[in-house]
Design brief:
Oligomer: single chain
Number of helices: 0
Order of helices and strands: EEEEEEEEEEEEEEEEE
Radius of gyration: 17 Å
Strand content: over 45%
Distance between the termini: 39 Å
Amino acid sequence: MTIDIDLSFPHHYVCEVLSELPGGAVPRHFFPGSKASGQDGVIVRVRPEGADVWIGMFAFGMFGKAGISRVLSLPDPERLCAVARGAGFVVSASEPDKWETVRAIPITDVQVIPTAELVVFANFTEMVAYGANGVRWCTKRIAWDGLKIVDIGEQRIVGEYWDIRDDAMRTFEVDLETGAVQGGVET
């Protein structure tokens, strides 16, 4: 499985995706939980500036092909995000015991938007945006299922969804600053 790495935002670490857990004495952290053991997932070696190297095993979500896998930098240069088959984890590069689960489950799309200093995660029905200080906004329910991001402008995201009420594709817009939605199922 090929995992995309997107380090568009400035960051204070180097990371690489590994195909297997290496031997040696490098500390290992398993997510969720940052425990000493866990389940299979995306393996990432993290080399933070001014701190020790560590290996993270980010557990695969139980979402099959619907969930994506990716590693990316965030607007906070100290944190990174690993997405493993739809399960997302935000982790401090220098303190891997400080982590949280991304509030979109399963993650079906993620868009890095450097001009807005945001990373936007989508699931089947809604979106959540992370900025430098964590979650900036969460949308209301936009779709019953099948939400897709189709375009990103300077001030908005445009998406589409299947509207079961009239059996047709519909569009919606989300303001990048506030998360306010125009269109969608709850208009």
